[in-house]
Amino acid sequence: MNKINPGVALVTGASSGIGRATANTLRNAGFHVFGTSRRTASKQSDGVTMLTCDVTDDASVAKMVDDVLAKAGRIDLLVNNAGMGLFGGAEESSTAQAQALFDVNVFGVLRVTNAVLPAMRRQGKGRIVNLSSVQGFIPAPYFALYSSTKHAIEGYSESLDHELRPFGIRVSLVEPAYTRTSFEDNLAAPDQSLEIYDSARAGMTASVRKSMEKGDAPEVVAKTVLAAATDPAPKKRYAAGKMARQVSFLRRFVPASAFDKSLRKQLGLPA
């Protein structure tokens, strides 16, 4: 990649929100951008070539990557953005629901990454940017399973970066905080709700809604993805936005007990 011709980028989950903003930002930076959506979309959207892909299906992922390589001949940047959310007490979700969440948020990243890596190794270079979250490194009450998927992506990405460096491939994480997208509206509900959590869940819903209203625009995250993709000396983690930077700093330097107390107060949870 270079500033004149940064190369070919593939962004999963690019039909809306952070994914769409990222695809547009990369296109404006000169990338030839392919985006994916789970449902069939128009073949061209704001200069981004859209492809249908279900990241939970091996054959769908393989076909999508083959299509990109047939059209562009290479993949210089992979942005793993496709994902889903789940809001509720940890014990309110069945094992099957938890597995479905991991199939998208963790194994979906694994499928697409594994499908892209052979081409990147042949090229002798490549960048992979995985969308994580501040919930990938802090506690997240009533988002325990979603947070678990992001913790998994953090460990996977850090380890993978070490494995791939000999091939000229680097892996980075982008960690947003609250972002003004339709994420809140599309959160899955637990499949076995328990009455004992109703009050706390309602309080958390109000807290999340209030925070989302003050959240960053998706373009803030998209610019951070671009920075991670083009940094000459890529870092493992990039905080996206002011709140994400503050949370990252506090998590690293504030004593655990003080951080715990502050988190519960902010979320309106009893001490």
From TrEMBL:
UniProt cross-references to Pfam families, sorted A to Z: adh_short
Oxidoreductase as UniProt keyword: yes
Alphabetical UniProt keywords: Oxidoreductase
Superkingdom of origin: Bacteria
Ketoreductase domain location: 7-180
Family annotation (CDD domains): 17beta-HSD-like_SDR_c
Listed transmembrane segments: none
InterPro entries reported for this sequence: KR_dom, NAD(P)-bd_dom_sf, SDR_fam, SDR_oxidoreductase
Protein name: Short-subunit dehydrogenase
Upper classification of the organism: Bacteria, Pseudomonadati, Pseudomonadota, Alphaproteobacteria, Hyphomicrobiales
